[in-house]
# Entry
Amino acid sequence: MAERGFDLRLAKAYWLLVAHHFDGLLIDFSLFDFKRDKRPKVRQGVKQAVPVERAYEEMLELLDEYRRGKDILWRPSFYYKGYLSSATTTLIWVNNFHLKNPYGIVPLFSVQVEESKHQSYFKLKFPVSIEEADRLQKELARHLGDITAGSFFQHRQIAGLANGKYEDDPIAKFSFSWKMVYLTPQEIYSLRCKEDVKEPSYEVHPQENGDVLIPVVNVEGNYKSFPIDWWEHFLEIKGEDIDDTTTDLAWATYMAKRALQAGWDEITTTLTVLHYLKNYSLGAGKRRKIPQLLWDYLFKTVWKAMNEAKKEIDPSLPKFVFRISKGSAQNS
# Structure
């Protein structure tokens, strides 16, 4: 049997995100075998009542089972079934959430479990009982997802691990918004259909053209687009958080190097890397509310990336010079 793929940096970033927003949550891990029969064989609750802050470390202890073909899935702990009316949470979750929806509802973050399928997470503005969270989750799923998987205790995928339901074992990815998105019970219960379907507005957009670098300036059509690795492949973890500065610089350097090696000129390369960082990177999302801080960060990151890329290609190449006219940042 071929070695199953996984991305532990992505998995750790995912658990950091879940723990950040839903601290104190207790979870169970289960093992699913989707490969042997039409109906999966399930070992329920192989780890129980795990604090979400320890989820990554506990998940690692199950990797040998994962390598043998079992999927590691998680759910809010069955411990809560004894406290449905007294335990509280701000977590709700929808399977197969419709990112394009008529209500303008945007998830806090989503796990892409297959090309067009997302498991989306939402944060309630105020804690509610587990019982109420279950009702809210089912109501939201009725309008915008899969009601058959609407239970609060439904198992869910882990970003960075493969989804064994599909023959090619795709690695689950995730996308998220740096903008804090809250929902209230009133909003969920009062959902009404609208005619115009709106695209949700993410602070960090899921890539629209797949993992492809497209030149933003290509007057004569001389420069070809090409596939690239997305920022998740360059995730750096510092302590107990994502190091967005190091992640962005590594991703920008990689894009710049690939573009220069493909024959793009420095101006096209610079503007394209700047565009991708501004629209998709972690650091840009965090700094977006203060334009001057955002542009200062982008220019410095691209300048460093261009110099690093040129140095990796040929150390004898002259240093990259980034000239910007005064006030252009605010007008870009």
